[in-house]
Structures are given as C-alpha cells and as structure tokens.
Amino acid sequence: MQKTTKHQTSVSFLIYFLAIILMSGCVSGQLGKNNSGEYKNGMVVSAHPKASEVGIEILKKGGNAVDAAVAVQFALAVVYPNAGNIGGGGFMVYRSSKGEINALDFREKGPSSASRDMYLDSTGNPIVAKSLYGQLASGVPGSVDGMVEAHKKYGKLSWKEVIQPAIDLAQNGFQITKQQASELNNMHRNFMKFNPEGTAFINLERPWKENDLLVQNELATTLKLIQEKGRAGFYEGAVADSIVLEMQKGKGLITKEDLKNYHSVWRKPITGTYRGYKIITMPPTSSGGVALVQLLQSVEPYPLKKWGHNSDSTVQLIVEAERRVYADRATHLGDPDFYAVPVNELLNPDYNKNRMSTFNWSAATPSSSVLAGNVNGKEHEETTHFSIVDREGNAVSITTTLNGSYGSFVVVKGAGFLMNNEMDDFSVKPGAPNMYGLVGGEANSIAPNKRMLSSMTPSIVEKDNKLFMVVGTPGGSTIITSVFQTIINVIDFEMPMQSAVAAKKFHHQWLPDEVYAEKDALDSLTTEKLKAKGYKIVLRGGIGRVDAILKTKWGTYQGGADPRGDDKAIGY
Ligand code: GLY
User: Fold this and answer.
1) 126: β partners
2) Which amino acids bring their CB within 6 angstroms of ligand 1?
C-alpha cells in the first residue's frame, strides 16, 4: 500500500474543498444566493416560469440584461401567448450599471389607411366589436423592431443566441400550466371563429389539461426567419406576406409598406423624485410615466408611513390624487409625435400640489367637479411585464402587450403568431361618450401612422444614484395604480419586494367615480369610514400582476413575482 505524505494529504484536502465550492456553484440558483432568498449575480422576474428560466440562462452564459430581455420577450411570445408577443408592441426602460438611462417606444402604430371614424357606424356610433376582434383591430406590430433596436444598441451575445431558446420552446413544445389550460379552453370559440383553418391553440380532440404539450411549428419557422434576417425576417418577405394575406381575410388595413416603414423610437425617459428616490419611467406614448410621477408628487407632502398601509387616510388621499391625475391623463395624453403633450406642466410639483388643494378630508370630491377632460375608459388589462438585472447591475424594465388577452384572436396563418387588437386603445369616438358613458380624447384620436395611448409604466427607481428597484405590471388603466402602490409599499411602508407585490390594491380612475378594491384590500372599518364620506367602493378581482426586483442595502437582489398569476422570480 502506498504511504500518504503530509503534502499529499493537504493537496487532497484542498481539492476536496475546491470541489465542494464548485459543486455548490453547480446547484441551480445557489451560487450567489444568501440565506434569505436573495441573489447577488442577477435576476429575472416574468409572467411565466419558462420565460424566467430562459432569461436566467442567458445571464449565466454571460449575456447582459438586454440580451436576457430580448430572449424573454421572444420566449413569452411562445409560452405566454395571452400577452407575450411578436404581433404586438411595448415599452422598455433601461438603466446601465453606470447610470445611463434610456427608453424605447416599440408601441404599435395605426396603419397608413387608418382614419378617425373607422370604427363608427353610419349614424356615428362606435361598432365596438370592430376595434376589438378580427383583422381590423390590429395596429402595425412593433415588438420585433423594438427587440432588434434594443439588441443592436446594448446587446452583448449574438442575435442568434438570444432567439434560440424561443425557437426551441416553439419547436419542442412546453407544458402548459393549469391556468393556461383553462384560458385556452375558455377562448376555444373565439379561436375557432377567427381561425377557421386551425391554429396550435385549438385542441379538437379534447379540452386542454395542465401539463399538455403546446407545440407551435409555424411560430418556430417565423422565429427562425427573424433569427436569420433580423427585422427583415418579420417586416419583409414570407412573414410580411402572411400578415398582409391574413389582413385581407377580414378587411384588415396593414399593408407591406406599413410593415416596412415601422420603426421603434428611442425616447428620453420621464424622471422625477419621491422622498429622495429618483423615478425613471416611460414617457408618452405612454401616459403611465407622467401619471406615476404626478401621483408621487401629489402624495409626497403627506405622512403615509405614519398613517399606515391601506388605512382610511392613506386610501382617501391616494383616491383623491388618482381622481385628479386620471382626469389629466384623459385630457392631455397622446402620441407626442402627433400631439403636444404638456409634460413639463404636468410634472411641475407646484401644479400637482395645486391640484390637491381642492381636496377636502371630510367628503369625497365628486369627479364631476374635477376639471372634465376626455377619457378612453375601456382599456384591457391583459398585458405582461418583466424585470431583469444582470451581474454588472444593468437593469431592464419591459411591459409588452397584444392589448386584450390573445389580442385580436387572429393567428397569422402560416406564421403562427397572434395579432394585437391595440387599435382599441385609441379614442374610437373623440368628443362623445363611449359605451361606458365616458368621453374619448382628441389627443388620442385615430390617425394614420399614429401610436395609440398606453398606460404601460415600465419603471426603474434609483436611490443615492444607484439602482434600487425595477418594476412594472399589466392591468390597462390599473397599471399606473399598481406600479405606484408597489413603489410606496417599499418606500413608505418598508415592505420587502414580494410583500409589496402581493399586497392587495385599490384603484380610482376619475371616471367612473368608483373606488375599485381587491377583496381584503380594505378592512371593514376603513370601508365604512370611506363610505360615510361619500366614496363608492366596488370589490373586484385581482388588480395588476407586478413583476419587480429590489436591490437591498446589502447589494443583493430580491424578487417580487405576482402570486395572482404563474409569475416566477429566478435569481442566481
Ligand atoms: N393595452 C394596454 C396599454 O397599452 O395600456
């Protein structure tokens, strides 16, 4: 038997020790994880576990937050077809580890032959279904161009690498969640109606069940073309031909020229401050960033922390702030390339302080007495948001949408992706009440090549010039409320990220003059006190589906994945 020397023993011990360290690094999610579920190297939070996995793998491969964001956007188009998309649009807010900030507007545009009254009947009344379902409801998609632009400017890995995971998911299929099975079954009739030639979302043999494999071969082919040719793989050639052919089936307006001419736009983010934190958020075409900063300015003078989370004073103050801000939103916000949005005036702290001066603690301010503007009140809530931070500390906040769940329900034949119904986000009939008795805004009237107003509010918060939070949510007009309440839940009520996201929310949007509250958002005493002051409280289902990341004072990342959906935070 060989004798072991003292030197050999210490070398063996060293190898053993190194192996333990390396092994612990190989256990998924453990490298960089501290005891409280926080991570130091990076994090992805999205609406679907598979998309979060795709993002984290890109980060682990050395990709940066933008590489991961592009991969997640395409992966969501496969695994979360309700809102993940290549046939829709969205917004990105970016902050580099060095503090550079930027915003990308890849919102859809009205086709070049769109016209102000295109959804009105001969008597001038809106034909609601026309802007909601079928080929005519679609704007020119922006997501693919947006991802190409984002990657060109900030990406590190190759375009091929960041698209590949989505192709694999479409080609090999993925197991649908219980929630997805039930949604696909509920939407069966709509899919049949708008896709008589069939689509991957229709299961003719039996209802969908949890863990069924959803394979999307046509979508895989489209993604391969985008992988090979970049934006030309979507806006030109076979995919563009398929979109135009699909449009012709239902009087849709999108032409080859519209597709070729679509370009996303880099815009200067909206910035503001709140209790010493810096808010970086989306400018118009979103109304969200302006409204978010207005809300924060409106409540900043008041001691929310002392009053407590969802206490009667806190709720009353926020409702009154929202009433005023949503009236402004309805009147003044639209596509800045077509309409002079008075951003500086709306973001003047004195202006918002003044707006709050008519608020009276003893009784609700009737919305009819708040300066009446115009509002488009029929926004859909099925959008999706994801937040990403990489090892260097670069952060991406993207909200992306088809508008309604599964958009227009039209799946482009031969190309396998859903088209948006974003045209419904325009004011279909400016100056007259819509189906809810609300009035549509001139700023957001339909015009050729114009972008429809959005509420999407992807945002990033800084503290002491360093990254603090990445946050956003779906939810139509409730998006602004949910992002706002998540931010104050952390800053004022000192909640950890997950609690701030999960906390029950409430919402007021000027018109209708009602406070919408999730079940258990307000306790019975608070509800009684508010009712006595004239507030109408209406209980409703989930508000928002926030996916957010918080950087702790120890430099670790905490995820907040909304329990209202299948959302997942993965760090490493
Ligand atoms: N379609 C929802 C939004 O853009 O706000």
Assistant:
1) 120
2) 379-380, 383, 401, 403, 425, 454-456, 476
- Give the model confidence (pLDDT) of 435-459 as tens digits: 333 344 788 899 999 999 999 999 9
Tokens 């009344």 locate to: 125
Token reading at 9: 């023993």
The reported pTM is 0.92
CA-288 nearest atom, ligand 1: 5
Residue 1 pLDDT greater than 70, yes or no:
no
Please tell me the distance between residue 413's alpha carbon and the centre of ligand 1 in angstroms.
25
Domain extents in the chain: 277-380+458-571
Buried residues in 441-451 as b, exposed as e (16+ CB within 10 A): bebbbbbebbb
**pLDDT of 376 over the 70 cut:** no
Q: For strand 466-471 and strand 174-175, is the pairing parallel, antiparallel, or unpaired?
A: unpaired
The residue with tokens 């109304």 is 287
CA distance 327 to 53: 40
Beta strands in 150-269 (DSSP E): 174-175, 213-214, 265-267
Ligand 1 atom nearest 455 alpha carbon: 5
- 15 CA to centre of ligand 1 in angstroms: 56
Sign of the alpha-carbon dihedral angle for 300, 305, 307, 310: positive
Ligand 1: residue whose CA is nearest its atom 4: 454
User: Per-residue pLDDT tens for 44-76?
Assistant: 999 999 999 999 999 999 999 999 999 999 999
pLDDT in tens, 493-519: 999 999 999 999 999 998 889 999 999
Which CATH class, in words, describes the domain spanning 277-380+458-571?
alpha beta
Give me ligand 1 centre to Cα 237, in Å. 29
Q: Which two tokens stand for residue 386?
A: 């994801």
